[in-house]
Amino acid sequence: MAGTPYAVDRGVVLRETETKETDKILTLLTWEAGKIGVIARGARRKNCKFAAAAQPLAYAEWTLYQRKDWHYASDASTLDLFPGLRGDLTALALGCYMAELTEAVCPEDVPAPELLRHLLNGLYALSTLRKPPALVKPAFELRLLCLAGYEPLADACALCGKEDPAEPVLDTVQGV
Fold it and tell me: CA separation (Å) from 134 to 90, 114, 150?
């Protein structure tokens, strides 16, 4: 992204921070650039052309340019706002939690398409498929840990060595 004046990339807004009178600083997870900070000037104005795309959990196609260490939003078009989340407080809270976890495990400026795909799948499961949050949450967390390199050893019992123990237990402290 640094070599071209403008770059187009799709990504999810993981976090927003209001700054100045009408601006936002967004944390985006994109396909090409990974997790990046983006200054969205005027994103809090009513007539801003990318106000909808600059809200948490919005998936959009962004036109960005880079100046020094920051990316700046030039334009954005919304691809999915996950409307099923907006009408269900529990699903919205879980979606925000999933974005926060993803942000925590994702390194800066390193493409992480598998993490973005996983987050989009989780948001889709809640919003469109209307899967129960009680099922989505642990499945999302476990897969995210695996993608982040914290996969538990579950091919055999750590105590007895059997591949199919009679009463399997996951020891999260030991990771076995």
Answer: 10, 23, 22
Residue-range definition of the domain harbouring residue 11: 7-80
Considering the domain architecture, whether residues 19 and 76 belong to the same structural domain is answered as: yes
The residue among 119, 124, 169, 154 whose CA lies nearest residue 140 is 119
* pTM as predicted: 0.85
- Tens of pLDDT, residue by residue over 96-143, are 999 999 999 999 989 999 999 999 999 999 999 999 999 999 999 999
What is the DSSP code string of 90-127? HHHHHHHHHHHHHHHHSPBTS--HHHHHHHHHHHHHHH
If one counts every other C-beta atom within 10 angstroms of the C-beta of residue 35, the result is 23
157, burial (CB in 10 Å: exposed 0-12, middle 13-18, buried 19+): middle
